């Protein structure tokens, strides 16, 4: 259990914490022991003032003119995000996207593990695909309770998403990442995040067109 209260952290700040932790971990792996907010801003693309404000919600994490100790920040954010604890994850929908997520298996964070995958396609249910045994959605509740899984990733298309999410919620899972952009109904006790790949791509292209930094490549 960490010693930091999440009640005083704004939601916008909370969304940036995993980004900070990921980049701090990369810096640590490169032997960087200290960094200033201006330098960290260039890496995270978050304004220095926002970084300092986000960090201030967690207390005195650095010193003016000195910066922040990378190792200490990793410890703080890891405790806050409970990333020291193993988080076992179920994937619902084992099509192309589900396979890609399972094969990646969060290599940079050994505490995030794809533990089981589910589908309704009779062609793959009961088979081992890409190193994963594919369970039937009919067995979802039984399997995730046996494995004590509290997190699920759904790659089910929008037209079937509500039915799939209902099964996930009924099993007792309280954290769901949904790749279907259309909203679904879940109880207040369930934390749901949506990832719309089309929206993300359009946002990327917009920033590329309008906020692109000058090229560093010399031209003749």
Automatic annotation (TrEMBL):
Pfam families hit by this protein: CoA_binding (PF02629), Put_DNA-bind_N (PF06971)
The entry's DNA-binding region: 19-58
Function: Modulates transcription in response to changes in cellular NADH/NAD(+) redox state.
Gene3D superfamilies, A to Z: NAD(P)-binding Rossmann-like Domain, Winged helix-like DNA-binding domain superfamily/Winged helix DNA-binding domain
Organism phylogeny: Bacteria, Bacillati, Bacillota, Bacilli, Lactobacillales
Descriptive protein name: Redox-sensing transcriptional repressor Rex
Binding locations of NAD(+): 93-98
One Gene Ontology term of the molecular function aspect: DNA-binding transcription factor activity
Organism: Tetragenococcus muriaticus 3MR10-3
């Amino acid at each position: 259990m960490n010693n930091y209260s999440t009640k005083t952290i704004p939601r916008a700040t909370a969304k940036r914490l995993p980004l900070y932790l990921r980049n701090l971990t990369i810096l640590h792996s490169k032997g960087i022991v200290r960094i200033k907010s201006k330098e960290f801003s260039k890496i995270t693309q978050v304004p220095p003032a926002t970084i300092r404000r986000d960090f201030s919600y967690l207390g005195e994490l650095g010193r003016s003119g000195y910066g922040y100790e990378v190792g200490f920040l990793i410890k703080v954010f890891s405790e806050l995000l409970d990333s020291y604890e193993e988080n076992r994850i179920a994937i619902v929908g084992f099509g192309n996207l589900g396979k890609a997520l399972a094969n990646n298996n969060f290599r940079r964070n050994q505490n995030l593990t794809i533990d089981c995958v589910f589908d309704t396609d009779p062609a793959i249910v009961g088979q081992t695909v890409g190193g994963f045994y594919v369970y039937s959605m009919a067995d979802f509740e039984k399997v995730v309770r046996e494995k004590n899984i509290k997190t699920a990733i759904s790659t089910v298309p929008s037209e079937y998403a509500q039915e799939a999410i209902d099964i996930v919620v009924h099993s007792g899972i309280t954290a769901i990442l949904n790749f279907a952009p259309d909203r679904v109904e879940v109880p207040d006790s369930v934390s749901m995040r949506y990832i719309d790949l089309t929206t993300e791509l359009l946002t990327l292209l917009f920033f590329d067109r309008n906020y692109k930094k000058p090229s560093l490549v010399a031209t003749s």
